Amino acid sequence: MPESPAPDAVQHPPGRLSTGPLPTRFVRCPPGRPDLRPPHAVDPDYAFTLPSALATPELVREAVESVLGIHDISGRPADSLPDIAYELVWHACRFTPEGDSVHLTLRRHAGAFHLSVHDTHEHHRHPQLRSRCNARRERSFHSCAKLVADHHGTCGTSPAVAPARGRLTWLSLPTEPEPEPEVRPGVR
Prior knowledge:
With 188 residues, the protein is α+β, with helices and mostly antiparallel strands. It has a domain at 45-174: Heat Shock Protein 90. It contains 3 helices and 5 strands; from the N terminus they run E-H-H-E-E-H-E-E. A 5-stranded antiparallel beta sheet has the order 1-2-3-5-4, covered by helices on one side. A hairpin with a 2-residue loop joins strand 2 (101-109) and strand 3. Helix 1 (56-70) runs antiparallel to helix 2 (81-94) and helix 2 runs antiparallel to helix 3 (127-150). The longest helix is centred in the last third of the chain and has 24 residues, at 127-150. The radius of gyration is 26 Å and the shape is globular. Residues 1-23 are annotated as: Disordered. Keywords: ATP-binding, Nucleotide-binding.
């Protein structure tokens, strides 16, 4: 005599795969041992997803100060990094509607600090709107670009890479000072 299915078995129409009865107990893999070593200052790498809000730039300033403190990083340009991150996120929040998020990354790699932020403001198709928006973006980014230039850094903007939408604004600040030009007597 054929056995009847268990009372909690899932019945499926012919041709569909059956997952069988639902498990009554889940088995978890034990988590790995936590890494309790203190972070090192060599290459910090952080990413933050934050709401587009008035308080967000100040929150970022405090977060960057904490990251620099944890990694025991100081000096030029690290001492200006919280203010630069503040300006960068302020700029992104201006172009991201309330309720959306901005995404900030902070890294130190290859002798430079690298910061980038995504906003969600889409590229305008109409040439006149695009021109006005680009001018507004340039004015908004002016104070951040000045801080970057003061530290011999570079900055720019580009369309966000899919699946992200909006714009990516980035900057790089060298951690070592620019070498002074060599002055040779009699050579101009």
